[in-house]
Amino acid sequence: MSTIRSKTGVREMMKEFRAEHASTGEIAFLLQDWEDAYNVGGMFRVADGCGAKELVMTGRTPYPPNPMIGVTSLGHHRRIPFRYIERHEEAALKLKEEGWSLVAVEIAEGAQSFLEYEYPQKTCLVLGNEANGVYGSVMKHRDGAVYIPMLGKGRSLNVHVAAAIVGFHVRLRG
Question: What's the pTM?
Answer without folding.
Answer: 0.89
